[in-house]
Amino acid sequence: MTDDRSEDKKPAPNAATNPANELWGGRFAGGASDIMQRINASIYFDRRFYRQDIAGSRAHCNMLVAQGILDQDDGHAILKGLDQVEAEITAGTFEYDPAKEDIHMHVEARLAELIGEAAGRLHTARSRNDQVATDFRLWLRDEIDALDPALRDLQTAMLDRAEENADTVMPGFTHLQAAQPVTFGHHLMAYVEMLSRDRGRFADCRRRLNESPLGAAALAGTSFPIDRAATASALGFDRPTANSMDAVAARDFAMEYLSAAAILSVHLSRLAEEIVNWASAQFKFITLGDGFSTGSSIMPQKRNPDAAELVRAKAGRVIGDLNALLIVMKGLPMTYSKDMQEDKEPVFEVADTLTLTVPAMTGMLGDLTVNREIMAAAAGQGFTTATDLADWLVRELGLPFRRAHHVTGSLVKMAEARGVDLDALSLADMQGVEAGITEAVFAVLGVQNSVASRTSLGGTAPVMVRAAIAEARGKL
Ligand code: ARG
Predict the structure, then answer these.
(1) Does ligand 1 come within 6 angstroms of the Cβ of 130?
(2) Any catalytic annotation for residue 296?
(3) Whose CA is nearest to atom 11 of ligand 1?
C-alpha cells in the first residue's frame, strides 16, 4: 500500500463548488475547498488501519445488538457488508477519495453503498475520536508483536557470534583508546543486554497501551446502554480505559513506542558505528560479507559498509519522529484536536524503519568474518595489560594500589620510549624500577591471561562469557 497524495488537483477558485460532506455536512451549504480537503484528508496514510477499523466496527456492532441498541437484521447486514468492504480493500479494488477524509468515513460510506440506510446505525454510541484511538492502539499492538521476534533473532545472531568468540581477544576501549583486553564475545554480549532492555521497553509499552478507548464516543461517553467491557474483550484488550476524555486525548502509548524505538535505534547505531570502524583498513577486525557490502564505481579496492552506515543514520530519522510527535502533542488542550491526525505518520515511518534496520543488523552479524589474529594482535597494543601489572604488584608484593599504579606508569614510560610492549622489557629493567618483581610477572602481561583472570561477576573471562551466553539463551 503506497501513500499517495499526488492527485494533484488544482484548488477550485470557488470553494463552494464541492458538495457538502455526506457524513457530517448536514449543516453545511457547500463543500470544502480542494485545498481544505487535501490538508484535512488522512486517508492516504490511515488506510493502513483498515483491518483494525473494521475489527473495531464488528465488535461495536455485535455489542450494539447484544445490548438491544441495534436490531438483529441490521446487525447482520452490517457485518456482512463489513466483510465485503474488507475483502475489497484487501483485493485492492476499493476506491479512495480524499473528500471522504479518512479510513473511518471510507468504510462507513462504502458500507452505505452496499447495504443502504442500516449502515448509518453503526455509528450509534461512537465517534471517530474513540475509533481512531482504538485503531491506533490495535495497530501498534500488532506492530510490537511483530517486532519482538525480530529483536529475538538479532539477539540470537549476537549470541551465536559471541559463543564462537568467547575466547577471541580484542582491545576493549574507553575514549576509543585501547584500555584493557576483552573478548569479542563479551563485547557482543553487552549488546545482548541492551536489546533485552529494549524488548522490555516495548513489552511495557504494549502492556500499558492494551486498554480499549471504544465507547468513550466523542469525549464524554454516551447515553446509550453500551457494554465497553464486551468490546474491549472482543478486541483483545485487557480492559476499557477508565476515563472517556483520556481515552480520546491520550497518545502517550505512541510516544512511548517511539521512545523505545529511539533508544533501540541508538543502540543499533552504536553497533553499526563499531562495525564501520572494525571493517576499515585501519582496524581490519572484521570482514563484512558480500551480502552486506557495496563496491565503489571508481575505487576498485573499496568494500563499503553501507548497510551499517544506513542503520547508523536511520537512528536520526527515528529520533526525529519521536520529536515530531512530542512537539505535536505538547500544549494540546483536552481532548481531541485535529493536530492529533499528525500522530500516525511518524509512527508508521518508525515501524517501517525498524523492519529494515533490525534484520539488516541480524544479517550483517551472521555474514561477517572475524579476523581473530588481527584482533588478538591489537589486543596487546597500547599497554593494555598495564592494569594487570599493577594488580600483580598489589597482589604479589603487597604494594598499595596507588604505588603500584606509579611503578607501572614508570615501566610503561620505559617501554614507550623503547617502542616495545610491556612484556618485551627484561626482568632486570623491571627490577630497576621495583626490586621485588619476579619472573612470574610475565604471566600476567599476556592478553590471554589478562582476560582469563577477569572472573568477577559480569567480567570478560571466557568462562564468565560462556556462562552469560548460556543464561541469555535460557531467557530467550
Ligand atoms: N482522521 C482523524 C484522525 O486521524 C480521525 C478523527 C477525526 N475526528 C474528528 N473529530 N475530526 O485523527
Answers:
(1) no
(2) yes
(3) 338
Question: Which among 449, 384, 446 is positioned nearest to 412, based on CA atoms?
Answer: 384
Cell of 16: 463552494
Cβ–ligand 1 contact at 136 (below 6 Å): no
Contacts of 75 (CB under 8 A, 6+ apart): 61, 62, 64, 65
Convert the pLDDT of each residue in 299-351 to its tens digit: 777 789 999 999 999 999 999 999 999 999 999 999 999 999 999 999 999 99
Distances from the Cα of 8 to the Cαs of 45, 103, 201, in angstroms?
Answer: 17, 20, 42
User: What residues pair up with 177 in beta bridges, in sequence order?
Assistant: 174
How many beta carbons lie within 10 A of that of residue 252, not counting itself? Answer: 14
Q: Could you read off the pLDDT of 180-210 as tens digits, one per residue?
A: 999 999 999 999 999 999 999 999 999 999 9
What lies within 8 Å, CB to CB, of 170 at 6+ separation is 181, 182, 183, 184, 187, 285, 375, 376, 378, 379
Q: Whose CA is nearest to atom 12 of ligand 1?
A: 341
Cis status of the peptide bond prior to 335, with omega within 30 of 0: yes
Cell 583486553: give the residue. Answer: 181
Distances 395 to 214, 380, 398, 425 between C-alpha atoms, Å: 67, 22, 6, 21
Mutation pick for ligand 1 pocket among 40, 45, 128, 336 (CB with most ligand atoms within 8 Å): 128
Our answer to whether residue 406 is catalytic in this structure is no
Read off the pLDDT of residues 214-230 as tens digits, 9 standing for 90 and up.
999 999 999 999 999 99
Burial of 432 (C-beta count, 10 Å sphere; 0-12/13-18/19+): middle
Contact indicator for 69, 14 with CB cutoff of 8 Å: no
Query: DSSP secondary structure string, 107-158?
Result: HHHHHHHHHGGGGGGTTTT--HHHHHHHHHHHHHHHHHHHHHHHHHHHHHHH
- Crossing angle of the two packed helices 252-278 and 306-329, in degrees rounded to 10: 160
Neighbours of 347 (CB within 10 A): 25
Nearest atom within ligand 1 for CA of residue 344: 4
Residue 335 CB–ligand 1 contact under 6 Å: no
Pocket probe for ligand 1: among 107, 132, 347, the residue whose CB has the most ligand atoms within 8 Å is 132
Distance CA 6, CA 281 (A): 46
Buried-exposed string 276-294: b where 16+ CB fall within 10 A, e elsewhere: bbbbeeebebbbbeeebbe
Neighbouring CB atoms inside 10 A of 296's CB total: 10
CA atoms within 13 A of residue 290's CA, in its CB half-sphere:
0
Q: Does ligand 1 come within 6 angstroms of the Cβ of 132?
A: yes
Average pLDDT over residues 71-97: 98
